[in-house]
Write a structure and sequence with these properties.
Elements (H helix, E strand, L loop, with lengths): L5 E5 L3 H13 L3 E5 L2 H6 L8 E5 L7 H10 L6 E5 L4 H9 L4 E4 L4 H19 L2
Parallel strand pairs: 1-2, 1-3, 3-4, 4-5
Length: about 130
């Protein structure tokens, strides 16, 4: 039996964290939630998730800055970025930093599910090469 994938959800909005974690659990995945990039980075015991869903605009470190910090630390796993304040500059920055997807809030469940499936498929390909 295949183990459940661990999806990390990072958003400073508790409502977003709650609704996304409910959706992700309904898809059969395990979930870990964080209210800030600092909290995610400090949770060394959790290890790297199979996929990270992060907001862009957060107090302290933004989602774009987090992506760049993860890349500099050599931490590689699929990342889905979401924002309620889209801009071409931010989109280009996060995709250049390695984000798998750039989604504009509010995001519907089927879109999130498709992105998670793509992220996990991408992760599996990297594990076996």
């Amino acid at each position: 039996m295949k183990h459940a994938s661990m999806i990390a959800i990072l958003d400073d909005d508790e409502g977003v964290r709650t609704s996304l974690s409910s959706l992700v659990r309904s898809l059969g995945h395990d979930v870990c939630t964080y209210a800030s990039a600092a909290a995610f980075l400090a949770d060394a015991d959790a290890g790297d998730p199979d996929c990270l869903i992060t907001d862009v605009q957060m107090p302290g470190m933004s989602g774009a800055q987090l992506l760049e910090a993860l890349a500099m630390a050599g931490r590689r796993f699929p990342v889905i970025v979401m924002t309620a304040f889209p801009s071409d500059a931010t989109r280009q920055r996060v995709l250049a930093a390695g984000a798998l997807a750039y989604l504009i809030k509010p995001v519907d469940g089927p879109t999130v599910a498709r992105c998670i499936d793509a992220a996990l498929a991408r992760g599996e390909r990297h594990d076996h090469t």
